[in-house]
Specification:
Elements: E1 5-21, E2 27-37, E3 44-56, E4 63-73, E5 83-98, E6 103-116, E7 122-134, E8 144-156, E9 160-162, E10 165-166, E11 170-184, E12 187-197, E13 201-213
Parallel strand pairs: 1-13
Antiparallel strand pairs: 1-2, 2-3, 3-4, 4-5, 5-6, 6-7, 7-8, 8-11, 9-10, 11-12, 12-13
Length: 214
């Protein structure tokens, strides 16, 4: 097993996430744009463009999503080398609340079909859990400050990925802790620290996100 090393360079991830329903229909769209850097302000790491068609399952909190993502990934350090990935994905998302709405949980299961340069088609499986806690009100709503914590685990579907290349079954874990502000209904901002853990290293990321529902 490869020894795990700490990476002391703080990365920066910045994203805009939005979703919208098609009128009174249960169908809608969910999309995001993200720019990631190996450090807080520069050294390009990744550009992500993602969009999916969503469907709210009647009489439940379940939401199903099917979509497409484009990834342009850079290389750490002075190299300008880049790789490109096209990705299909399917989500199942649901939510629940506890203690009269003071704790809100969001779950997401994601399946990905990955088309990466010079590799065979790959699959990956992800589980995400997010918990939010309002700070200045009893429940989430407009003008609410909140704390949140989250985690996501990634597992590869294949270990042989073509051209003699292999990956481990376990891919990575993301662990988040942060704060946010619900500006108004359908608009919130979040700031967080995320620790990424792989078999090879751990690395910290500053996360700045804007979420917009309209």
């Amino acid at each position: 097993m490869q020894a795990q090393e700490g990476n002391h360079e703080l990365g920066g991830w910045y994203g805009y996430f939005f979703d919208s329903d098609f009128g009174e229909s249960n169908f809608g769209i969910m999309a995001d744009v993200q720019q990631r850097s190996f450090n807080v302000t520069n050294d390009f790491q990744q550009l992500i463009l993602r969009a999916g068609l969503s469907y709210k399952i009647p009489n439940s909190s379940l939401r199903a999503v099917a979509g497409y993502s484009y990834f342009n990934s850079g290389t750490f350090g002075p190299s300008n080398s880049q790789t490109f990935e096209n990705r299909l994905y399917q989500d199942l998302i649901w939510s629940s609340t506890f203690f009269d709405g003071r704790i809100a949980l969001l779950h997401r299961i994601r399946i990905e079909e990955r088309f990466i340069e010079n590799q065979d088609i790959r699959t990956r499986y992800r589980y995400f859990l997010n918990a939010k806690f309002p700070l200045n009100k009893k429940q989430m709503g407009p003008k609410t400050f909140f704390a949140w914590a989250a985690g996501e685990v990634f597992v590869n579907g294949q270990q042989q990925i073509g051209n003699g290349q292999t990956v481990s079954l376990y891919d990575r874990t993301w662990l988040f802790t942060g704060v946010g502000y619900q500006i108004k209904s359908g608009l919130r901002a979040e700031l967080a620290y995320m620790r990424e853990v792989t078999n090879a290293q751990t690395k910290g990321q500053l996360i700045v996100s804007l979420f917009h529902t309209f």
